[in-house]
Amino acid sequence: QAYTFNRFxxxxxxxxxxxxxAKSIEFYPGQRLSKEHPDRKxxxxxxxxxxxALQSKLARHNVKAVNYGVVGGxxxxxxxxxxxxxxxxxxxxxxxxxxxxxxTIEKLVKEFDIHAGYHEHAKRALDRGYQLxxxxxxxxxxxxxxxxxxxxxxxxxxxxxxxxxxxxxKVLKGRVISAHLKDRAEIGRQxxxxxxxxxxxxxxxxxxxxxxxxxxxxxxxxxENKWEDNVGDVKQNIEFVDAPSADERQR
Length: 251
Known about the structure:
- Helices cover 39% and strands 14% of the residues.
- The chain has ten helices and seven strands.
- It is globular.
- The relative contact order is 0.12.
């Protein structure tokens, strides 16, 4: 997730993604585009010139854009603009928290054949109407919708809430579109992210559960720690995901 490198530009995020050994990236709206053009943003409203420069940058570093979010649209016109942007970039999915426009999102998911995942942020004390923190709510929200609509499973926010990520993934079985994978030192407090396998988030268990569910989406390393120098840690997280599981090693 490019937010991992939010102290830098989108172009630098692409470079750092390559350095970390990843082949794909999830962009977020509003990141500064490049050091050469600090006033320009990566956004679904960006100019054709800037979009072409972004595509060229991705190609030079052999990085594929796969997701975009968290993003929302004020109406169907803006949502159509978001989906057009996603199609031009060749994205698998859009990440959102826009519940009120789910009918529009479903319509466009069908038209564009692009997935949509509802991001589960932590519970918000000052926003009692916000319910996406609850995987049960998300499961009910999408259960009768097009199968390309589901959840962007954020393991970090679940841990902050006090929940075990594996159990939350089970609640969302068959509806996980993408994942923001995070490990933490404790469950029940908001703490900095840490390298996969060193915390209590059971990242190996999460990967096993996703595999058991037949998950075909994208896993984003969204690493909210060591903001100025975290490529080494991100690389270790990617290596953890790529490493064979215990069952695979035994075969």
